[in-house]
Structures are given as C-alpha cells and as structure tokens.
Amino acid sequence: MIVVVGLSHKTSTLELREALAFSADQLAAALSRLREEAGAREAMILSTCNRVEIYARSDEGGAEAVARFLATYHGRQLEDLQPAVYRLDGADAVRHAFRVAASLDSMVLGEPQILGQVKHAYHAAEGAGTLGSALNALRNRSLAAAKRARTETGIGHNAVSVSYVAVELARKIFGQLRDKNVLLVGTGKMSSLAARHLVENGARAAVVGVRTMERAQELAATLGGRAVPFTSLRDELAATDIVISGTGAPGVVITRPDVEAARARGGRRKRPLFLIDIAVPRDIEPSVAQVEGVFLYDLDDLKSVADANLRERRKEAAAAEAIVEREVREFLDWQRSLDVVPLLVDLRKRAEEIRRAEIDKARSRLGSLSAEQEAALNAATSAIVNKLLHAPTVQIKEMARNGHSPEQVSLIRKLLGL
Q1: Is residue 292 packed enough to be buried (19+ CB in 10 Å), middle (13-18) or exposed (0-12)?
Q2: C-alpha to C-alpha distance for 353 and 357, rounded to whole angstroms
Q3: Helix (H) or strand (E) segment spanning residue 290
Q4: What is the pLDDT along the chain (418 residues), one digit of tens a residue?
Q5: If exposure means fewest CB atoms within 10 Å of the residue's CB, which of 175, 193, 286, 295 is most exposed?
Q6: What number of CA atoms fall less than 13 Å from residue 207's CA on the CB side?
Q7: How many helices (H) and strands (E) does the chain have?
Q8: Which one of 49, 376, 383, 418 is the catalytic residue?
Q9: In the β-sheet with 2-8, what is the strand arrangement from edge to edge?
Q10: Which of 138, 16, 150, 30 is nearest to 83 (CA)?
C-alpha cells in the first residue's frame, strides 16, 4: 500500500516546516533509516519550503510508523505534531501525489517549480536505493499527468507573482526583451527578483546604488551588468527602457522632472519608458504617468494584474483537476489489477500442468505419434484450455478493476483448487 505522511503550508507554520525539513545532504541517510525504523519497503522524501512529505510503500497501518519516524528523526514528539501532520493511504495517497506533482496543491496554483522538486525527490530516492516498483510507477504516472495538466490547460499561464507580472507587462509593451536596457534603482529583494527575470529574458541590467555602491556592485555582478552612482540617475534614465525601483527610501526617489529631462534627450522621445515602482512608500512620483510615452505601474497595479491572472488560473484548475482525476483512476485500476496477477499466473500454470498430464496419458495409450499428430494434439488441448480460462480471466480482471478484498481472492483460489 502507498502511504503519504507530511505537513504543508495548509496545515502548519513555516517555522514548523523548517524544523522538520530534510536537507539534500540528509536525504540518503534519512531514507535508509526510514526503511529500517518504519518498516517501509520503498520510500521517497519531498522537502520544499512549502511542504515536507514522506511517500512510502508500507503494510496496513504503516502510515503511523512513518509519522513517528518523521517526528523522532527531528527530535520531536509525534503527539506535539498531531494537528499539523496528515496521513494518507491507498487511493487518497495516490490522488494527493498526483495533485502535488500537478501543482494543484501548491500555495501558488499552477507554479512550475514543484514539478522539478518532485522529480529531484524521486531521483534522490532512486540514488539511495529506496525507489521500488510501486513508487517508480507512481513517479511515472503522476509526472505524466502533471505534464498533461500543464500542456492541455491554462493552469500555468498568466503570471501570478509580482516579479513575473513585471516581465509579462514589459513583454506587452516592448514585445521581445532581448537587448532592452533595465535600470534597477536600489537593491530590494522583490525588485532584484524582477530584474533577474528580465535579464533571463535577454535584457541588459544596470544597478543604481542609492545607499551604498558596494551592494549595488554585488547585485550588478550577479545580473551580469554594471553598477552606477545615484548621481547618474538622469543619464541612466535617458538610456534605459525599463526601470524597476524598490529602495525602501522614506520618500520619492524618481521625480517627474527627472523623467521629463530624460525624455528630452535626443532619440529618447521615440522610445517608450516602462517604470515599475515596487517600493512602499512609493519611489516614483505618480504624476510621471502623465508624461507622454511613459508607462508607470506601482505595487497595487502589479498585484491587481496578479490577482486577475490567478482568477484565470483557478478557472483552468477545474479542467486540470479532471485530467488528474482520470489519470488517478487509471493508475488505481492498474494497481488493483496487479493484485490478481499471481492468481491468474497460478491458474494458467495449474491448467497447463493438467493439460500436459492428460497428453502424457493419451500418448501412452496411442503409442508413438507423428510430428503432425503431436502438433494437432497440442493445438487442440491448448485451445480447450484457453477457451475455458477466457471467461474466468475476464471476470477476475473485472473484479480487480471494481475493487476487491483479499477474502474474495482467497475464495477464488479455494474454488479453483489453487
């Protein structure tokens, strides 16, 4: 049985998730201990900033042993974690695994990072030797379902983070971002992330040092750009296409006269200027938006676009959920069919033993047979066996698809003398 034990942003605080997280260096040893201490035949650990989950193949009741391992590994009492730690098994565990891979259980619906994180977790388990046939099948089918959900629906379309929205809006204004100049005013985390996304899309960066040049130089180095002093602001505005400002200063940093002076430079008036103000309080004077050819977005503007995009993703989520649910049902049908494979193998083996014994009896009565007669006898008896086994084989497989109990399989074995 597949079980999932863990906690996520839905059930716990960030502080608790950090306390129960597994670092990449810990995974191999933790997986080995998990098999020994929790009796898991297979195991995988998914540890991200938003979730810590253990996927295992275990016997009935194995989820509790896995939960206890999660607590004791990190020096905690399981009783203290009870409100936050969930335990899923069987179909519920499988459905959860599929939804996580498809980012339907993510804090940001449709975010792409989780798919790579899930792949990495399975890869680590494979390297540690704890990935067997059950979890490997879960990996293959859940990742395939996640890819279907992303390619066949719009769940991953439309930016829903402020930094990605900035890139999306820049694309709408400029089309291609390759060789566009980005001016980052200040070194705030959110504005730096937006600049990094723009650079990844081909833009060139410059960083204005507002408080210190040292931090500006460090950030410029990571962006592959250059650092400039605040005194050069107007010169840089004249040469840039996109401005991202997030200084944390107590008042306006970029004024309307600054922008008008930059627009007055030769050749500047023909090119649009896109300004993104991520600061609170705002860095850019609001009246800048009235200057011809200037597009100004503040944090509220970006968030409103992000919220609208998230609503669109939620509409697409229903289609993604339907795809994932179909894939889950197919996986569960396949998984149930595996339970009766040994029964069908034993049934076929027993029938073949009877067929060969009866042929030997017939051969002793008939004497030596020609090659053609041997072939005819084998063909006839094999056909009889196949026809007799066809109906019970079909019914047993159908029983497996519809769900069955171990008692049913045991009864069938007794009826067939197996």
Answers
A1: exposed
A2: 6
A3: none
A4: 899 999 999 999 989 999 999 999 999 999 999 999 999 999 999 999 889 999 999 888 889 999 999 999 999 999 999 889 999 999 999 999 999 999 999 887 888 889 999 999 999 999 999 999 999 999 999 999 999 999 999 888 776 777 778 888 888 888 888 888 999 998 878 778 888 888 888 889 999 887 778 888 998 999 999 999 999 999 999 999 999 998 888 889 999 999 999 888 766 667 889 999 988 889 999 999 999 999 999 988 888 888 888 888 888 889 999 999 999 988 988 877 766 677 778 778 888 888 888 888 888 887 777 888 878 888 888 888 888 878 877 777 777 666 655 667 677 777 677 7
A5: 175
A6: 30
A7: 16, 10
A8: 49
A9: 42-47, 51-57, 2-8, 86-89
A10: 16
| Strand spans (E) along 264-344 | 273-277, 294-298
Number of C-alpha atoms within 13 angstroms, CB side, residue 278? 23
Instruction: Tell me 254's DSSP state.
Output: B
Distances (CA, A) of 42 to 34, 117, 139, 290, 304: 9, 19, 12, 63, 45
CA distances from 365 to 275, 279, 348, 369, 370 (A): 99, 99, 26, 11, 14
Reading phi first (left if > 0) and then psi (alpha if -120 to 50, else beta), residue 73 is in alpha
**Other C-beta atoms lying within 10 Å of the C-beta of residue 106:** 19
Residues in the chain, overall count: 418
Side-by-side strand order, sheet with 242-245: 226-229, 204-209, 181-185, 242-245, 273-277, 294-298
End-to-end alpha carbon distance in the chain:
25
The tokens for 224 are 């592959």
Whole-prediction pTM: 0.64
**Structural element, H or E, at residue 58:** none
Bridge partners of 184, per DSSP, are 207, 244
Helix axes 27-38, 113-128, angle to 10 degrees: 70
Which DSSP state fits 231? G
How far apart CA 3 and CA 351 sit, in angstroms, is: 37
179 is catalytic: no
Residue 70 and residue 59 in contact, taking contact as beta carbons nearer than 8 Å: no
Cβ neighbours for 225, distance < 8 A, ≥ 6 positions apart: 182, 199, 204, 205, 206, 207
